[in-house]
Write a structure and sequence with these properties.
- This is Glycine reductase.
- This protein has helices at 19-29, 123-131, 150-167, 180-195, 207-213, 235-251, 283-307; strands spanning 57-62, 65-66, 90-93, 100-101, 136-137, 140-143, 172-176, 199-204, 217-220, 257-260.
- It has one domain.
- It is 33% helix and 13% strand.
- It is built from seven helices and ten strands.
- The relative contact order is 0.18.
């Protein structure tokens, strides 16, 4: 007998988190009056793969940062660390392993602890698939700075990543963001790559931000931020998520296609109520968070000034 479909309604709050509204309310609550304007497009460029995926050279683009022991705590569960930010595009050899971390960005520190880099940096799995002939892996992966400035991303970082991809003869790119602004950054980079002949797929957890920016292809996983490439310490989840992203890359018929992964973080959707939710924070919490945020902004500013 065929399995009967589940006709039970889901909980009303079991929907993708509205990160733009949530972060807007959060920053207003800690004292920032000017609301951030998220990148918004109503159309997207689209570049179909020009050859079978097995013959295509694929690059990985990440917003994770190389670990530097001189930059303070960057380990699992570390507090937000503005000193670990990077402000210029960087490259890494895909034939080697790399220690990339996400303490410099606002991933979900309540419901994930950043103990498994496979959830945000799927290079080892990409390398295995390339060795099996699924595609050709580009010689370098690229780090995209998480920048709140649309102009810097569009005018500086995206063209730099495009130039590096072109130098590596890249046909397609897989982009893996982490925090809310990361999702915007990789969306803008994907648009630029796509407009210049490189097919892309974004793997992400912030559905509203990516769709607001309008990307060609998007694989949405309804997981806490920091888990765009699958669940931590769950090989099957990570394998399924990456394979689904590759299928989206291969088979998407038109721009602005979103495919939602059927995987669930857990059956209880209550985790979605926590991320930067001012309804759950006391005045003392908000004051402490403002002080912490100002301190980290100053650390990040010092890093940026040193680079520039």
């Amino acid at each position: 007998m065929a399995e009967q479909p589940d006709t039970t309604f889901a909980a009303d709050d079991d929907v993708p988190i509205a990160y733009m509204a949530r972060t807007r309310a959060y920053y207003q609550a800690i004292g920032y009056d000017a609301p951030y304007r998220w990148a918004h497009h109503v159309g997207a460029p689209f570049q179909p793969l020009t050859k079978p995926l097995a013959q295509s050279r694929v690059a990985l683009i990440t917003t994770a940062a190389p670990y530097d022991p001189a930059k303070g705590d960057q380990g699992p569960g570390a507090p937000y660390n503005g000193g670990a930010k990077f402000y210029q595009v960087y490259a890494g050899d895909t034939a080697s392993d790399h220690d990339l971390r996400i303490s410099h960005i606002a991933y979900d520190r309540v419901h994930t602890t950043a103990t498994d880099s496979g959830t945000w940096f799927p290079l080892p799995r990409l390398r295995r698939l390339a060795n099996e002939g699924r595609f050709q892996l580009a010689p370098n992966f690229f780090g995209a700075p998480t920048n709140r400035s649309h102009r810097v991303t569009i005018d500086t970082d995206a063209p730099e990543i495009l130039a590096r991809c072109q130098a590596d003869n890249v046909d397609a790119a897989v982009l893996v963001p982490n925090c809310p602004v990361c999702h915007q950054t990789v969306s803008l980079v994907a648009r630029h790559l796509e407009a210049n002949g490189i097919a892309t797929v974004v793997m992400g957890c912030a559905k509203d931000i990516v769709e607001h920016a309008a990307v060609p292809r998007f694989l949405f996983s309804d997981f806490p931020l920091g888990n765009s490439a699958g669940k931590p310490h769950d090989d099957a989840s990570q394998a399924f998520t990456l394979e689904l992203a590759l299928r989206v890359l291969e088979n998407t018929p038109a721009a602005q296609t979103t495919v939602q992964s059927p995987l669930r973080w857990r059956d209880d959707p209550s985790w979605k109520r926590d991320y930067n939710n001012v309804a759950n924070l006391s005045p003392e919490d908000l004051a402490r968070r403002r002080a912490d945020f100002d301190a980290q902004k100053q650390r990040a500013r010092e890093v940026r000034d040193t680079v520039n």
